[in-house]
Each structure stands twice: as structure tokens, then as C-alpha cells.
Amino acid sequence: MPGNNQDSVSDDDTIARVGVKLPPFWKANLVLWFVQLEAQFALAGITVDDTKFNHAISAVVSEILISVSGIILRPPDIDKYTILKKRLIDLHSESEASKIRALLQGLQLGDQRPSQLLTRMRALDSDTVGEPILKSLWMGRLPNSAQTILAALSEDMAGLTMLQTKLII
Q1: Is 154 exposed, middle or buried (0-12, 13-18, 19+ CB in 10 A)?
Q2: Which domain of life is it from (predicted)?
Q3: 3-class secondary structure, 2
Q4: What count of other Cβ atoms lies within 10 Å of the Cβ of residue 25?
Q5: What SS3 state is found at 123?
Q6: Global confidence as pTM
């Protein structure tokens, strides 16, 4: 009926369930995936450990869940989500040694822009090697013509990156 408000408003102030848009599982960077997941929890107002734990389990692919089956089948009484998160990151994230190895040997410019290469190098670095070494590694992967021009300048990394984008390499 037009004057009846029973369907639109409830006297009950509790919410039975909150919808969460879970990010697609991203094995290549679990730390960032958990940041996205926790942002969704914050947007939905989810603070309860059990709810976070259950949402995380529902989003992780089955091949990865096997590695934490002990936690899933016999969850701890407290901090379920935090323990699951730490274990997944510990088991499936790239080690610091392999990140440094990739930084020193593995990355090449290829068909990406130099600024994209620098972004990838910074993601691997995590403040381990320092800015002067990172600058040297980055410049060493640029074409010789760009290296010659940029080596003559004493700009910081941000300045060199901006300048490099103006050069035709």
C-alpha cells in the first residue's frame, strides 16, 4: 500500500550481512593483494576476525589453499585472519634474495619505457640497495645514447626519469 512503510524501513538496527567486492587473487604480489582485500574490508566496515578469515579463504585459489590447509581445517582461536595472511605471504612471496637477484641481473628494458623499468626495479628494491646503486643499475639498462646524456647530469632519480621521458630513445 502507498502509505505502508513496512517494506522500506526496519526497526532493527543490525545488519545481517555486508557485501564485499573481493579483489581477484593475485599470487604474484600477495602483499598488495592483502592491501586491496583490507581496503574492501574497511569500506564494508568489516572488523571481525572470523569474517575477514572467511572472506580471505573464499578468495584464495585452491592450489594455494592447500599450503595453508592446517590453518583452515583447524583455525586458531584468535587472530585467524592475521595468522592466515602471514603464512600465505611467508610461503608464496618472493624472497628478498630472489628480489635482489632479479634487480641485479634479471630485469631488462625490453619494449617498456625506462620509467616503467624503474618502477619495477623500485618494487623489487624495498630500500635494500639504496638510491645511488638503483640509479646505476637503472642507467646501465638504458640504451647507450641515453646513458651518455644522463650520465653527464647530476639530477636525482625523479629528475633523470622526467628528463629521460623527454628524450627519444
Answers
A1: exposed
A2: Eukaryota
A3: coil
A4: 13
A5: helix
A6: 0.59
**Residues 45-76: tens digit of each pLDDT:** 999 999 999 999 999 999 999 999 999 999 99
Rounded Cα gap, residues 158 and 92, in angstroms: 32
Predicted pLDDT at 7: 44
What is the Cα–Cα distance from 113 to 4, expressed in whole angstroms?
Answer: 62
Rounded-to-integer distance, Cα 164 and Cα 135, Å: 13
Q: How many residues does the chain have?
A: 169
Measuring CA to CA, how many Å separate 65 from each of 20, 58, 150, 160? 20, 10, 47, 44
Between 157-166 and 131-140, two packed helices, what is the crossing angle to 10 degrees?
A: 20
Greatest CA separation found in the chain? 80
In this structure, what DSSP letter does residue 16 have? S
Residue 114 CA to residue 160 CA, distance in Å, equals: 10
| Domain limits, the chain | 23-106, 109-168
Pick 165 or 111 by higher pLDDT. 111
